[in-house]
User: Fold KTU protein from Mionectes macconnelli.
Amino acid sequence: LVSPETRVSVSAHNVVVELAKAPDSAGPWEKFSFGLEPSALQERLFVTEENIDGFLGTALCPSSCSQSALESQPLIEVLDVSEDRIQIRVE
Assistant:
């Protein structure tokens, strides 16, 4: 994180925290944590192709699935991720 470029804005109903990556950081962020105390943070994932693939894989077939169940699962491909939509193809 780049400290001087970090901003916080507080209103009656919202808090907005703007974070800036350090210049030597590359690639999208995968997740973030938030909360009132460091010992009780909640974790959230950013919407990325990798996170969507991971979520769909877990939701469709948990770790207890057999190999044959895994082979019969549909092929899911994330085509596009934007602020207002996610486009997924299932075969």
